[in-house]
Specification:
single chain; mainly beta; 9 helices; five-stranded mixed sheet; extended; 40% strand; 1503 residues
Length: 1503
């Protein structure tokens, strides 16, 4: 269906008629609905009516693919008609200024020429997107359309996307709401029928392959003043038009005033009932803070579901403080709730540092700088703020960079030096004399962008086409720019000046930048400022101006063609603060608001100076410190302060805040007691008939649920006959009790009653009329109902129920009561007592915490159980916050026994009511009561048994503040004892009388009091006689420490007896005694004698420490003692068993100590050791007995060091068998050492020989067999620790060791049986000529060896001159008869058999008779005639499973004994076998293994 164009004035007329029609229909609906709703609902409907009157016809989304409906784009165009018309008018006004220079024909011709030129222009070079015309901000009324447009240049052509906040605009999400266009390079976004929720920041993002650019603008949608406008307190959120909804929503539990701290998380939750409850269609919920709609973000998370709407603030900041409102749309309109959230400062990094700034925003973003603004923090106890640091961070980075070197003292700062096209976050920190605050919350991201290159004009031709004309197109082909104009300071303060100017016209058809120059005063010396920076924006901040100097500025425009002429100089500009902080606010008035809140109002400052808001502080009476009530500037002049303590008195003050900081404090308000505001009480209820005698009726009622914040002082009773409508007063004078006897009634007539309550604020509304009560005399035998059921001491699991006796008692007195209980809402009452109780109170225990209960009471007499009382009001089993109990104690000064109570809640009119057995105490003879503030004390005058019982206290005009305490006999007895001690004080003692023996044998008697005054007096008594200070007796005291003492210098047997000290200190007295007789006295006397002798001993040289021992690291036992009072002449001696021991190093008495080393300690070192000191002044001695336990301790100490140093077991083979050796620092047989084979302990035997040397312990397996294979372990015990070393003698290790043993055994056998000279031959023989020479020796070998003699290496043959003899296989001789000089020479004998032999040489010298005997010339030492058996190789290196053993060593070659001179034959040696080869020498300092002293060597030595 085609759209018919309607003129604008026709559209307006049509709209007016439609509005009138809608208004009438709406009014009928409102009237019809108001008859069914309360007055509050009527107000809401009136608001809805007003909004409807302002509204246009509702827009209905057409059904798609419908042939009869108007196309969608035509509907949108119709709604946008008025907005486009207004836009065209604005464009027309802009166009007039240009058309004054040229005619419309010239413009048309120029446009055509330009278009033809543009068609002939070559393809533009590639270029990143650039906004030629930015999106501009709009402010409009509700239900009006708005068009946002911009112009973008770039190559390739940029793609433009529109965003609302951070979310892209999707036209399909709300059909008909948004429309996007792109015509002739102009990109536009059309928003139809705007609502308040469309208020947001919109941005156009242009992107191509070379980058992207962003242009942002804010759209603000306002509501007309008459559309639902309602006077309200500041902070209430105005109601927006009703949304259509089919859900019926009722709010249940709502969030209250909330307190948080920076860095914490917070949840605001509202539960609701939704009908119908559809899981896929939750109600529409909106959250507001200070009238501003919140959107989901990192700082605010929103959720709806499960019957609750939740706003989560995951990381609180002072930016989050404010009035929060939740609004839920329902079919009846909206349901909403508001409450304030307070966010206090987190702990500062340094105590005393200020709080963090808040509300950091970045604005006026351009290529040259970004203006950052913030709000200052509140300071109460912190020092004044000296300035602020601004930090920046690129989006996506984590590194913050400080922007200003020195603190800036205003709450805004232009940040320059940003990279174009980059986005940044900003934060601010406050500085005072103590330190730097925590950083603020970071700002939203902002980009440093190019400014628009020029302005455009849009001309609509025939309503169909838009022609875009750039300003430069209207300037012709001028290349050089004109000079800028209107140079002025748009912002001035003491830190910087923002210089602004108008761009030049013409601009020169090329991008511009600017040069700024300054000069001081009237001078003409111009100095360029931005030497290193190109400025592209027509404004720039200038720093570094000198204080007190006036400057002029001028600006030059530059493009690629050259600079313009300088602008006209600006006026004089001087750095200063034009406004400063606001003046102090006016009078502050505080009034009551609630139990913990106060309503504060104040007058605005006379000089607001761009006021940001106010800070309110409070001070509790009695405290000198002020506390901040709000932590974010509050804009209005009235504020509700929450979180105060009920019952305390506060004063308030206010400070105004602007960009320059905080004003002076206002005058303080008058002190205000915090309690609920006074109002008239609500209506009484529960009117009950208690008794009737036929002419009068006694009625009772329950107190109003709301007392109005003041004590109820009056009740007024009205009555009427049930058949009448006229009420009449019953009591002209006020009734204070909740019971009244109405007289002058007619029997048989039914009456109705109503009650009104009154307090200081006035008389409240009357109660609902009672049910008709028949005036008929009561004659039943049972008692009437009890009444006035009250509760006290309500706790989580218990409470006290109290009631009053029935007025009508029946035919006999009441003997007891039966109490019944039921949960709220239940009619199932249960008895709490099996039998009736005599008193009118009862403690109910075992309640369920948080559950609500009701009670009723029945009175009992001899005739039976009477009528039940009226059911009580419900009571919640939950203790009041901060509820405290009664404390019982004794006054430390007076000794009075008291009960004290501290109230957790208090009203200005509250009183403390003390009771015993829940009867108010009126007799002041036995107790006295004093109360002040939240504390009350009941003091007993003369406590005794009559005062035992249960005491309770209740605080009136509160929510049931009460407590009780049962005073028992035991508790009273203890407190009476304590009271007696306080009233009859004693001097408290820290220690009783005692004694100690001092040096010289003096005895000191002493005691210590906890405290003594300087005026304290005392006396000592010994055996009932006072002791006075004198010769040999000293008495003194120290008041500071409380010590009193007496010293007896000559303590003898005469001092046996009883000692007493009596002390008097003011009124306090005390005494302490000490019995010093019998064994106790003898021990003291013995100790005194010893100390006296010790003192005498110490006058000369003496031992300060007697002999003791220690074992050093080399296992040497050291006996040591310390000396004192010695001199050079002092002599020192060591003795063992009375024989003096002279150590290698003489003792040095002047060193203060002497030491006696006992190396290679063993049993032989046992004995009694003594050290003596002596000189001309005296002597002293010290005795040390090394035996028994002492000897064992020394051995254990040696074993500990030796065992710790023990090496791993090393395998060593010998001719007798296989030996396992363990090297250590020292070994002795007295050490507790055990060998184990597998798990069995080894005892020394012929098969298993155990021994050791000073350097090692060993175990030898003689003639080993396979049975001896396995693990071997040595254990060394030192009384506390067992040191173990293990060797695995099996496998290859055993095989190698056994082979080596066999080899050594064979070598030893050969050595034993080889031929050798046993003895008899000399080395040198000197003989005179013609004498007879006989060389005789003993030889040995098995088998018998062969003997050969040689002279000069030539064999000697037996003849008459040289006779050779060999007898019995043992005796060999060479006899030379009548020797001559020729017989001189080297003779030798070679003895050998199959196992080897020996070669022995003898030198023979023959001299002539009469000659001097020549000097003998030694021949060579005897050598084996044949090669000796080969040297045994190094022992087999067998690795133990434990650490590496020491390196193996070679067995030495056995050395033959030297030949012996024997001119005559020597008898044969004993038949013992020769010495076998020795065991290898251990590495380094270890000695060859030798058998221990108590054992023989494995093989006998050679003699």
């Amino acid at each position: 269906m085609p759209t018919t164009a309607i003129p604008l004035y026709h559209q307006k007329q049509k709209h007016v008629h439609h509005v009138h029609h809608e208004h009438l229909s709406s009014k009928k609906v409102v009237q019809h609905h108001s008859s069914r709703k309360s007055s509050s609902k009527s107000v809401k409907k009136e608001q809805a009516e007003a909004r409807t009157a302002m509204a246009e016809p509702a827009y209905t989304v057409p059904a798609f693919r419908s042939a009869d409906d108007t196309p969608e784009y035509q509907r949108v165009a119709a709604h946008c008609g008025r907005g486009l018309a207004e836009l065209q008018q604005e464009i027309h006004r802009i166009k007039v200024a240009t058309h004054t220079q040229v005619t419309s024909l010239a413009i048309t011709r120029e446009v055509q020429e330009i278009m033809s030129v543009k068609r002939k222009m070559p393809v533009m070079s590639d270029k990143a997107p650039e906004f030629l015309v930015d999106v501009r901000a709009h402010t409009l009324w509700e239900k009006m359309p708005v068009k946002l447009f911009c112009t973008v240049a770039g190559q390739p052509a940029p793609v433009v996307k529109w965003y609302k906040g951070d979310k892209p605009v999707d036209p399909l999400s709300t059909p008909g709401k948004y429309k996007m266009e792109n015509k002739y390079g102009v990109h536009s976004l059309i928003i139809s029928r705007c609502t308040v929720s469309d208020t947001a920041q919109y941005s156009a993002v242009a992107t191509n392959t070379h980058g992207k650019a962003t242009s942002k603008a804010t759209v603000t949608v306002k509501r007309p003043a008459g559309a639902g406008d309602l006077s309200h307190l500041p902070g209430l959120v105005p109601i927006t038009p009703t949304h259509a909804s089919k859900l019926d929503v009722t709010l249940l539990d709502t969030f209250g005033v909330t307190f948080g701290t920076e860095g914490e998380s917070c949840k605001l939750v509202t539960t609701m009932v939704v009908v119908p409850d559809l899981p896929n269609l939750p109600p529409e919920v909106m959250w507001f803070r200070d009238d501003k709609l919140l959107a989901p973000s990192k700082w605010a998370e929103m959720s709806v579901g499960g019957g609750a709407a939740t706003l989560t603030l995951p990381h609180l900041n002072k930016d989050d403080e404010g009035l929060y409102t939740v609004r839920v749309w329902s079919k009846d309109g909206t349901a909403e709730h508001s409450a304030y959230l307070f966010v206090k400062d987190a702990a500062a990094p340094v105590a005393g540092a200020p709080g963090a700034p808040m509300d950091v925003k970045a604005s006026d973003a351009n290529k040259d700088y970004v203006m950052v603004t913030w709000k200052p923090p509140n300071i109460t106890t912190e020092g004044a703020i000296k300035g602020y640091f601004v930090d920046r961070r690129e989006v996506g980075s984590t590194d913050w960079v400080q922007c200003n070197d020195a603190p800036v003292n205003v709450c805004k700062y232009p940040v320059h030096g940003l990279a174009v096209g980059h986005s940044y976050h900003f934060r601010v920190r406050a500085v005072n004399s103590v330190g730097i605050s925590r950083p603020s919350r970071r700002s939203d991201g902002v980009s440093a962008l190019h400014t628009a290159a020029g302005e455009i004009e849009v001309i609509k031709i025939d309503g169909k086409y838009d022609i875009v004309i750039h300003q430069e197109d209207l300037e012709g082909y001028v290349t050089l720019p004109g000079p800028p104009s209107d140079v002025h300071a748009s912002e001035i303060n003491k830190t910087y000046v923002v210089l602004s100017w108008m761009p030049p016209s013409p601009s020169g058809r090329a991008p511009l930048w600017y040069l700024i120059e300054k000069c001081v005063g009237e001078g003409q010396l111009w100095q360029r400022l931005n030497t290193a920076v190109q400025l592209f924006s027509p404004r720039y901040p200038i720093f570094d101006l000198e204080d007190g100097k006036a400057y002029r500025f001028r600006v030059t425009a530059v493009n690629k063609y050259g600079p313009s002429e300088p602008s006209k100089p600006s006026g004089f500009i001087q750095k200063r603060d034009p406004h400063g902080v606001p003046s102090a606010p006016g009078k502050v008035v505080a009034t009551r608001n609630g139990k913990t809140s106060v309503f504060v109002q104040w007058d605005p400052p006379k000089h607001p100076n761009n006021l940001m808001g106010y800070y309110i502080d409070a001070c509790m009476q009695g405290s000198k410190g002020w506390v901040a009530c709000n932590h974010r500037p509050y804009k209005h002049t009235r504020f509700v302060v929450h979180g105060l303590v009920q019952g305390e008195t506060y004063t308030f003050r206010v400070q105004a805040v602007n960009t320059y900081g905080l004003s002076d404090e206002s005058q303080e308000s008058d002190p205000l007691f915090v309690d609920a505001a006074l109002t008239a009480p609500s209506a009484p209820h529960g009117i009950t008939l208690l008794s009737c005698d036929g002419s009068s009726m006694t009625v009772a009622w329950k107190r109003p649920k709301n007392t109005g914040g003041s004590k109820i002082t009056a009740y007024y009773v009205d009555m009427r006959e049930a058949a009448s409508l006229k009420w009449r007063e019953v009591n002209a004078a006020a009734v204070k009790e909740r019971i009244y006897k109405v007289e002058g009634l007619t029997a048989g007539v039914a009456y109705e009653f109503k009650i009104q309550a009154g307090n200081l604020a006035g008389v409240g509304v009357p109660s609902e009329p009672s049910k008709p009560l028949l005036c008929e005399a009561w004659t039943m035998a049972e008692p009437g109902p009890a009444y006035d059921i009250k509760f006290s001491e309500v706790r989580d699991h218990s409470l006290i129920v109290l009631w009053k006796a029935p007025v009508y008692t029946g035919q006999s007195p009441v003997t007891g009561y039966i109490l019944e209980m039921a949960k709220k809402g239940s009619s199932n009452f249960i008895k709490l007592t099996e039998e009736a109780i005599a008193h009118r109170y009862f403690k109910v225990k075992g309640l369920e915490a948080g559950a609500a209960y009701v009670f009723r009471v029945r009175a009992v007499n001899e005739q039976g159980v009477g009528k039940a009382s009226a059911i009580s009001e419900s009571v919640l089993a939950k203790a009041l916050p901060g509820a405290k109990e009664i404390e019982c104690g004794v006054d430390e000064e007076s000794g009075d026994i008291f009960l004290s109570f501290e109230a957790c809640e208090l009203a200005e009119t509250s009183k403390y009511v003390w009771s015993k057995s829940y009867k108010e105490i009126t007799d002041s003879g036995r107790v006295s009561i004093s109360s002040k503030g939240k504390h009350s004390k009941l003091t007993f005058t003369n406590p005794e048994a009559a005062d035992l019982g249960t005491y309770s206290v209740a605080v009136t005009d509160t929510d049931g503040v009460s407590a009780s305490h049962k005073l028992t006999e035991d508790a009273l007895k203890k407190m009476l004892e304590l009271s007696y001690n306080i009233r009859h004080p004693i001097v408290p003692l820290k220690t009783t009388l005692n004694y100690e023996v001092l040096e010289k044998g003096h005895v000191r008697f002493f005691l210590q009091a906890l405290k003594l005054s300087p005026a304290a007096s005392y006396r000592f008594i010994a055996n009932n006689k006072e002791v006075a200070a004198g010769e040999g007796i000293k008495i003194s005291h120290d008041a500071a420490t409380g010590v009193i003492q007496m010293t007896v210098e000559h303590f003898t047997r005469a001092n046996e007896g009883t000692y007493t000290v009596q002390i008097t200190d003011g009124k306090a007295k005390n005494q302490s005694s000490l019995v010093l007789v019998g064994d106790v006295f003898r021990a003291a006397l013995k100790e005194a004698d010893f100390q006296r002798k010790e003192f005498i001993r110490k006058q000369g040289p003496h031992f300060s420490e007697y002999i003791s021992f220690y074992v050093d690291d080399d296992c040497t036992v050291m006996l040591t003692c310390k000396l004192a009072n010695v001199k050079k002449e002092t002599t020192f001696h060591w003795f063992k068993d009375d024989e003096e021991v002279v150590p290698e190093v003489a003792p040095n008495v002047m060193s203060g100590s002497c030491t006696l080393p006992l190396p290679l300690f063993s049993r032989k070192d046992q004995g009694i050791y003594k050290a003596t000191l002596s000189d001309d002044r005296g002597k002293d001695s010290s005795v040390f007995d090394i035996s028994g336990a002492v000897f064992e301790d020394i051995i254990n100490a040696i074993a500990h060091i030796a065992g710790s140093s023990a090496s791993e077991l090393v395998l060593q083979c010998t001719p007798e068998g296989i030996r396992l050796q363990c090297y250590m620092k020292y070994f002795t047989e007295e050490m507790k050492t055990h060998w184990f084979h597998r798990e069995s302990k080894i005892a020394s035997s012929e098969k298993m020989r155990i021994g050791g040397t000073a350097e090692m312990a060993w175990m030898q397996i003689c003639e080993p067999t396979d049975k001896e294979k396995g693990h071997y372990t040595i254990e060394i015990h030192d009384a506390t620790t067992s040191h173990n070393r293990t060797f695995d003698l099996s496998g290859q290790a055993y095989s190698d060791a056994y082979a080596e043993f066999q080899r050594l055994k064979a070598a030893a056998f050969a050595e034993k049986n080889r031929g050798r000279v046993v003895g008899g031959l000399p080395d040198v023989v000197t003989i005179m000529e013609q004498k007879s020479l006989s060389l005789t020796c003993n030889v040995w070998g098995d088998p018998t060896p062969e003997v050969t003699w040689f002279k000069n290496e030539q064999e000697v043959v037996s003849d008459a001159h040289s006779k050779i003899a060999f007898e019995s296989g043992k005796f060999a001789s060479l006899t030379i008869t009548a020797v001559t000089v020729e017989d001189s020479g080297k003779y030798s004998i070679n003895v050998r058999n199959k196992y080897g032999g020996e070669f022995v040489e003898i030198t023979v010298s023959v001299y002539k008779q009469g000659e001097n005997i020549p000097e003998p010339k030694m021949g060579h030492m005897s050598k084996p005639a044949t090669p000796a058996p080969p040297k045994s190789p190094a022992p087999t290196r067998v690795k133990s499973p434990t650490p590496t053993p020491p390196p193996s060593v070679k067995s030495p070659t056995p050395t033959p004994p030297p030949s012996v001179k024997s001119p005559t034959p020597t008898p044969p040696p004993s038949l013992k076998s020769p010495t076998p080869p020795k065991s290898p020498t251990p590495p380094r300092s270890a000695k060859s293994p030798t058998p221990p002293r108590f054992m023989k060597s494995p093989t006998p030595p050679r003699k």
